[in-house]
Amino acid sequence: MIFLRPQNLLMRPEYSSIVTSMMREMIGKYGSLLLLLAAAVLIMPLEQKAEGYAVLLAGVACLALAERYFAKHVVVLFGMLAVLGSTPIDTSIDLEHILRMGVPLGLAIAVPYLVFRYIYNEPHVIQYHFAKHTFTRGQVGYILLALVASYLILPFWMQNTGGYMNWAVLLDPWHLFVLFLGTNGLGIWDELFFIVTVLGVLRHHLPFWQANIVQAVLFTSFLYELGFTGWAPFLIFPFALSQGLVFKYTKNLVYIIAIHLTIDLVLYLALINAHFPETLPLFITGA
Amino acid sequence: MYRLFAAASGITIAFVATAAPLVSDQWGALLWLAAFCGIGLLHRHQRRHMALYGMMLLVLALSPLSTSTELVPATMMLVGMAGAVSLPFVAQFVAREKDLLHLRLRVAWPTRQEWGYIAFAACMTSTVLAIYFATTSAGHNWHMETPGAALISFMAIMLIGAWEEVFFIAGVFGLLRKHLSYRSANILQAVAFTTFLYVFGFQGWVVPFVLWYTYYQGFVYYKTRNLFLTLIIHAIVDLFVFLAIFLSLRPTWAFG
User: Fold this and answer.
1) Any CB–CB contact under 8 A between A139 and chain B?
2) Is residue A104 located within the same domain as residue A3?
3) What is the ipTM of this complex?
4) Is A284 on the interface with B (CB under 8 A)?
């Protein structure tokens, strides 16, 4: 207990106010993040909207203890969680639902970007690293790995848990087209929101691994709400962590979107296969 | 070089054809004869090593490979496997030549890189094995009817796993590496290794994955020069194999 020894500078009475303010800031920082995660899990997968919003408000209140700089960044994330909570998140593909879900999701990535860029004047926090990249051989290999893994896992998961029932699939060109756009669009949105926005804001204040865990919990609960139920969270969570890590090392948004869209393509084919086994017999691990 | 690769491939093809088995006994004997004739055409110092390689696989092809837990067939198989792996040992004394069995075993805590190899293999193989045994009836190739049979199967799976590493990685891969490039040697080793696992029941769509896995084991040995790593990876994989088979045969035991 080296901290409690009198020769420790922090134990001297003249430093007590510094110590208490440090402790207050730590409690504010980690307390509010824990409340953010609890609110996300309550609002999205557990569908306890009232309790979830109460916890969310408690989190915002807890932010008052934290540093001002941290609080003004993270309160934006709380706001976006509230927006997601009021959005009907599911996979139906009629036009009205697409608008009612698409507009809030669009706001959830546009508002933080605009706030950080034009109101806070900190454009370096949320950055879209688009250009000037080519894929290395290792990166192409990783995409192939994702392709093979999802080819084995997704049909098996659908068969095993009946998870494919969460998506409506109709065999006419228009619906198939909209479903294709929907799965790919949501895939891109996942990366823009969870990796670029949430992880970008959090890694500004936390060690990367902590920020990545927070991001992955939010990612997993959103996808659970979307339809990845059953034991899927046990695989989505490591996937979300790996996406954060890959983004850290490659700094290439196009690449993580490419990984996600590869998996989404398999998801799309597996959904058709699960609903209409005779139409598209491509898979070996689920009828 | 090409002549050597062709001769070594002849041995491997004969092994695949007779162990799997893909052809009748007469055609198998003819294939082996042709393969050994091909080796006879090689240069003298390559011929000895390739003849040893051919003998090792021939002994393995002749031994009755099965997953039986009965005393007699299991003993016969173990005798055959012990004979096959003892050939390079014996040859080292007879020919007064070192490293016919390229056995480098250094028991040490894995480095960061080596943990990466282990973790990657564990993630990939556990996923594939879980799905493979859950979606096919391949688990029925193993015997787990009684607790005793399950225990014997478990011990056999772990022991044979360690034997495979010594035979295919240290023995076959090490021997081929003396004259062939890393890639050619590893491909031939992986084909023979996969055939061996195919006989034990890894059939159907899992074959390409087994091929990848055996190639990966050769790669890890090539990179680390330490059989300890491949033994650890194999032990982890075998643990998953046992669990996956056991749960696919007795789902009530785990899931109520």
Assistant:
1) no
2) no
3) 0.79
4) yes
**This prediction's pTM:** 0.85
Nearest residue, CB atoms, A156 vs list B124, B131, B205:
B131
Whether residues A167 and A208 share a domain: the answer is yes
Residues of the domain holding B17: 2-255
Cα separation, A221 vs B134, whole angstroms: 27
pLDDT tens-digit series, residues A44-98: 999 899 999 999 999 999 999 999 999 999 999 999 999 999 888 887 778 888 8
Give the distance from residue A241's alpha carbon to the nearest chain B alpha carbon, in angstroms: 15
Report chain B residues whose CB lies below 8 A from the CB of A270: none
- Answer whether A222's CB lies under 8 Å from A215's CB: no
Count of domains forming chain A: 2
Residues composing chain A = 287
Are B134 and A156 inside 8 Å of each other by CB?
yes
Of the candidates B65, B101, B4, B104, which has an alpha carbon nearest to the alpha carbon of residue B197? B65
Distances, alpha carbon B138 to alpha carbons B194, B200, B253, in Å:
16, 10, 18
Using the 3D structure, point to which of A68, A86, A104 is the last residue of a domain.
A86
Say if residue A102 is in the same domain as residue A193: yes
End-to-end CA distance of chain A: 61
Domain boundaries, position A44: 1-86
Find, in chain B, the residue whose alpha carbon is nearest to that of A142. Answer: B120
